[in-house]
């Protein structure tokens, strides 16, 4: 498999779709050992509008904590920008509603992708959606 933006985006989506921490760790180890892709996932939830800042913050903190990005302005900005892009894609469905889900982040060389998988709650009528953002960082 050639590793480029498509593979990194796919890896972020797969991380966001994991159901357990054990599944996350298995996938993370597999991605790194086979392709050299660094990845992490983190949960979140709450009312969508108030969660936007938390989602961006959790993305950056998790990526730094797991060594997906370095502690530099450019790399933090790349993750934050990709997370904001993913959020923008989800906004039409989630605005004003409660959400919960998982953020998947993946990186290979200069490719960084953030995938956000969420459940959108409206009474007992739940909706699901995925948003994806990508940035290049050197």
From TrEMBL:
GO function terms (MF aspect): RNA binding
Q: Which CDD domains match?
A: HutP
Q: Known InterPro entries for this protein?
A: Regulatory_HutP, Regulatory_HutP_sf
Pfam families per the UniProt record, alphabetical? HutP
Q: Which key words tag this protein in UniProt? A: Activator, RNA-binding, Transcription, Transcription regulation
Known partners and oligomeric status: Homohexamer.
Report the sequence similarity comment from the record: Belongs to the HutP family.
Q: Please explain the role this protein plays, according to its UniProt record.
A: Antiterminator that binds to cis-acting regulatory sequences on the mRNA in the presence of histidine, thereby suppressing transcription termination and activating the hut operon for histidine utilization.
Protein name as catalogued: Hut operon positive regulatory protein
Q: Which organism is it from?
A: Thermosyntropha lipolytica DSM 11003
